[in-house]
Amino acid sequence: MKYFNFILAMLLLAGFTVFADSSNQDVDRLMLEQLRQLNRQSEGTRKKLDAVIKANSPRHHIHNPNFVEKKAVGLDQIKLPDKPTRKEVRQYISKIIKATKGQNSFNDKDQQVKMYIAVGHANLDLLLEARCKARSMADGRYHLDYAIPKLITERDKKAVISFLLKVPSLAKEVIKYGWEFDARKELVEGLKSRPNLPLSWIMAVSCLKDPDTYPDLIEYFIVSSNKFQVYKCIKDLPGIKLDDAIGEAWDMMSGGRRNSYERRKFAYIAAGYGKIDAVLAIIDMLKKSSDNYQIMELSCNLHRRVSYPGSITEIKEWLIKNRKNIVFDKRTGKYKLKAGK
């Protein structure tokens, strides 16, 4: 208990918020109240911090000490004629893409975004065609992904759905305008065939709440490189059963980087499904971490699942020694010895 109080005090002093599954009924009420109070007090600070981060956010490029930024060349010489023909619009788009080829640093405020938007709603399909051909940021993908949504309206349902499989980022617009049921065929087909979908695609399929899609959602979840976020999208679907999938997904992550964000976040989930290896992984990550936030988060998630008194080394020894006799109580969300042991 002293160790738990120490962690709580450190958490509050450091100003950190713990993100964990809130469904557990046995979470210490005092801790939750203190965390809620901390969140309320720090809301204004977080908003200010977000504004500063946004204002000073780095441009999108590969972090390399030898990196030399290269900008698009000749954009100012590219002009869209008054009342352009379709052919002229295509040429205009092609010139922008050509000028972007050498660019290696990208931002949503780049000139190209406004230039693409300038072609207007009447030429939305030409932008979509260009986006289908774009395979990299320098091919126009980055700027087109920011420009195209600015032109889409409720009248464009047919066009958006027809391009959906080729431009998966359009799933955001499907959700925005409530076209999930109209796009069901494309959404399910993409879920079956594409390995790296944007999270908005998974959200769109989840909005269907169709049990027929659950096997495909679960399969995608197991192999996804973003298991933590995919889990959050599907965990509350009515009637979905994830116990076995959680185990498979966790086993696939066993060889991952020891302190990776994804593995750490998913360890919290797996620990809440009775996967004792995930609890042991949390302990190992806690021992190796030097990051204050991670230490607080890992500690709170560990003690949320294990009430055994002692240091983290002693807790690990207890788990390993009694592994065969330890059970997971779904009601309390905690690991404990079998009755009579």
Number of helices: 17
Helix content: 55-70%
End-to-end C-alpha gap = 22 Å
Question: Total number of β-strand segments?
Answer: 2
Low confidence ranges: 1-28, 52-58
Measured by DSSP, the beta-strand proportion falls in under 5%
Average predicted confidence as pLDDT: 84
Describe the main β-sheet briefly: 2 strands, antiparallel
Could you characterize the architecture of this molecule?
The protein has 341 residues and is an all-alpha fold. 57% of the residues lie in helices and 2% in strands. It contains 17 helices and two strands. It has helices at residues 2-14, 29-55, 86-100, 111-117, 124-133, 141-151, 157-163, 171-176, 184-193, 199-208, 214-223, 227-234, 243-253, 261-271, 276-288, 292-305, 312-321, and strands at residues 326-329, 334-337. It has a two-stranded antiparallel sheet with strand order 1-2. The radius of gyration is 25 Å and the shape is elongated. The two termini are 22 Å apart.
